[in-house]
Amino acid sequence: MSIIQVQGLRSLEGEIKVQGSKNAVLPIMAAAVLHKGRTVIHNVPRIQDVFCMLGILQSIGCSCSLDGHKLTIDGASLSQSEIPEEYIKSMRSSIILSGPLLGRTGSAVTSFPGGCSIGKRPIDLHLMAFRALGAGVKEKGDKLIVSAKKLKGADIYFPFPSVGATENALMAAVHAEGVTVIHGAAKEPEIKSLCSFLNNMGARIHGAGTSRLAVTGVKELHDSEFTVAGDRIVAGTYLAAVMAAQGSIVLNGVLPEDLRSALRIAEKMGAEIREYENHLEVSMMGRPDSIDVVTEPYPGFPTDLQSQLMAVMAVSRGTSRISETIFEGRFKTAEELRRLGADIIVKEKKAVIHGQHPLKGGFVTATDLRGGAALVVAGLASEGITEIHECHHVERGYEDICRDLTSLGAAIRGME
Ligand code: UD1
Fold first, then answer.
1. Does ligand 1 come within 6 angstroms of the Cβ of 327?
2. Domains of the chain in sequence order
3. pLDDT score, position 215
4. What is the structure's pLDDT at 114?
5. Below-50 pLDDT ranges, the chain
6. Which ligand 1 atom is the nearest neighbour of the CA of 118?
7. Whose CA is nearest to atom 35 of ligand 1?
8. Which residue puts its alpha carbon closest to atom 9 of ligand 1?
């Protein structure tokens, strides 16, 4: 599916189950490499980034099988610690394998992930953590080689709570000798689930969900089973969808706690929200109100929902503002939204959005994963047909956005 076509101005009604979390499952798959045995993961989303990570794991010798949403990884047969270049280019998150490979084998050969469409995405904090644990970092041509005779527990101080660097530091520390303390760790729910997954396979990590994580090194891990939580960003995307299209929907399989900041913002914009242990009911009657939002590390409003919220703001009453503090390239979608008639002015890290309803259907291009989803949201509130091109970006993180929205009553279809 490389094109999505949306016929707008139909309200949403109904109930769906939210897929498993992409940002939780990718580091968990990487962490499975730490164990010389079997790991079973349930509720795995069938998305391109997961397929790519599976390809990487197989290319380095792990035996993997994905049966529906159940993934079995056997790390006993791991045969190399060099990740083939073609995978690094297609998925930036492959850097997340350097921590577990370093921990398991004493070396990891990857390459600098380079820029991507939402910004520079440096890895200095990942490398700083590896060095603190006693590893050496070398560059050889395109290759990045991280190696250590022995990893030793250490204090790691992050000046910024990077999600990926926290994950890499955690995984590298699992087999390090002694105690590692990560100060200034990221607090995202995906870090908490990585800690639960690792502890469930025999690691000793304390402080999950706080900015101070303490890891006591262990020699061996054991076979384990784990269930991935629902994807808070996918749930947030459908929250944005119903706000733009109006209507009333139920999102099953998601923890409202993980989506707290987005839910509070949706309420301020006029959505009615009921929270339950493992599901959410959302109603939006009439056009949303405008609001000002700043993206921040968790528990603040997530940058991964910024584009989708911008699409909602584009059809809200009045003027909204966004400050993007995490990724500088995340405003590219504004240009595409303007093609649908949205009134958005971007200046450096700030966007000002003057809402108007409806937008006008047209041809647009997804430039990144969440930006593509935002264009779908905008299409739902546009008159006529909106055609979104380059939707392979969307498939990186959404199992089947057309299936989900169709079951909520949208007129949407994917085409080759
Ligand atoms: C993860 C998520 C991504 C989300 C992001 C922020 C995955 C697979 N991806 O990405 O969807 O948008 O968290 O919530 O989980 N930084 C540095 N040096 C580093 C690392 C990061 O300066 O070594 C900066 C980045 O440029 C960026 C900020 O820190 O400005 C946040 O990055 P980080 O939290 O590391 O995001 P990712 O782990 O890449």
1. yes
2. 3-18+230-415 (3.65.10.10), 22-218 (3.65.10.10)
3. 98
4. 54
5. 115
6. 12
7. 162
8. 23
Give the ligand 1 atom nearest the CA of 123: 23
Structure tokens at 385: 């047909």
The atom number, within ligand 1, closest to the CA of 186 reads: 34
Exposure b/e, 37-53, CB count within 10 A at least 16 = b: ebbbbebbbebbbbebb
Question: Is there a catalytic annotation at residue 52?
Answer: no
Within 10 Å of residue 82's Cβ, how many Cβ atoms? Answer: 15
* pLDDT at site 140: 86
pLDDT at 118: 55
Triad 339, 341, 343: Cα angle to 5°: 105
Kindly state if the Cβ of 122 falls inside 6 Å of ligand 1.
Answer: yes
**Could you tell me the distance, in angstroms and rounded to a whole number, from the CA of residue 329 to the centre of ligand 1?**
13
pLDDT tens track for 31-68: 999 999 999 999 999 999 999 999 999 999 999 999 99
- Calculated CA dihedral for residues 175, 180, 185, 186, nearest 10 degrees: 10
Q: Any residues with CB less than 8 A from the CB of 290 and at least 6 apart, and which?
A: 269, 313, 316, 317, 318, 319, 320, 353, 355
- DSSP H or E stretch at residue 16: strand 12-17
Q: What is the pTM of this model?
A: 0.97
